[in-house]
Amino acid sequence: MDRKGLKGSITVFLSLACILFLALICASVESARVQGARAQAANITGMGSFSLLGEFEKELLEKYDIFSLDGTYGNGSFQIEKVNERLQDYISYNANPRKDLFSAGCFDPWSLELEDSSIEGYALLTDDKGEPFYQQAVAYMKANALTLAADKLLEYSKDTQTINNWEKEYEKGLKDSGDQMNQMEVEKQKKIETMESEAAAAGTVVVVPPQPEVNPLEEIAKLRKKSTLEIVTWDKQISKKEINLRNFPSKNRLQEGNLKVEKKNSGLLCDLIFREYLLTHFPNYTDEKSGKALDYQIEYILGGKKSDEKNLKYVVNRLLLIREGMNYLYCVQTPAISQQTNALALTFTGFFGLPPLTAATSHALMLAWAYGESLIDVRILLDGGKVPLFKDMYTWSLSLENLGRIVEILQQGAKGSGQGMTYCEYLRILLNLGSVRSQRMRALDMIQAELQEKNSAFKAENCIVAVKTGTSWHCRPVFAGLPAAVFGASSESVRFEQESSLAY
Predict the structure, then answer these.
(1) Which of 192, 313, 421, 487: disulfide with 229, CB 3.0–4.6 Å?
(2) % of the chain beyond a pLDDT of 70
(3) What is the pTM of this model?
């Protein structure tokens, strides 16, 4: 059908109706666009936080499996304003895809403009005595590197109470023995004076029977005055490395963040897992690897001294006390030990006819015997051998006859039986006996000391592990003109704010 030359028309009513429908459609589209812009602003704010924390300290991650952002950006001065500038830079590129690009024909449906951004909160690696560090370390071990079963770790922790009890028993026994021996020495002198008076009255001479050539109590008394470290290492070379503790996290009042990190990991098992992290990430005396700042870093975490030698001395003394307590436990519970010490004590004191003196000497011999055995145990551990926590007749190595020549035995070197626990496993016990709060701060000391070898400006207290960001947005109208003209709706720009929280 040929319609050439025909004219069309539309009524005023239909025109008004079309305008109304078009205005309604534009209002709906504008409303949906604004809601989409809000969602886009939230996404951009989140991406900005993610990009910000994406600038993590690479060396810290590679060596210690810990994420953090250096809040100084390498210059040593913590400035949260600098961090905010980085955040604003990241957000601006996502908010305006055309930034620094020529794109005249590009249509941006959101029409978003960033008015302001701010770091409203942040958490540091050292906050709350290293709590964020603890949380990351435990999370890492749970996810990647936990090789010991939970029941095995709990088994290690159960022994700590027994160790604590018998350490105290040994120390109490040693003090009581000293008091008893001093008192018995007075009684012994009185007895000798009485015997000499009676002999003089009878016109005779008191003849004291010959004593054994070597008195083990005297030899042990001499050893107790010496440094335990020197006794158990002899001619071994000890690291002479030292560090300056003045600026370390555990020794100073640190700056703190204003954002709390969620404590997802807590409790006894998590503490045990954290200590496994320490054992796997920090070297100790028997490790082949060594540190740059200190070689014996687990020993530092335990002792907190400025030099390898002092930290090793602390650990050796603690190991000795553990072994003294456990060896004393074996002596007390073993009748054969008591029989031997009683027999030797009677040899020394039987002439005086003082049963309390004999009993005190027997107890002193038992304590000395446990001490001598403990020196050999520590020597074995430092040589890379094994020593069982609980001794029996097959793993007890020192005879009472050899107690007087303990120095010679130690000089020759002691060999472990291949049964029991290694030096590293005893370090685990020492960690379990200590405070996890001080251990995590001293671990941060070591992390700082190691990373400062490469970057002298690095400080653990400047490491950001979580941020809370806030942004203010301006959303220009796009489809609001017609609804404003028809319905009188507002055509002004919409302003709103968004927040984002992100932690490693």
Answers:
(1) 313
(2) 89
(3) 0.85
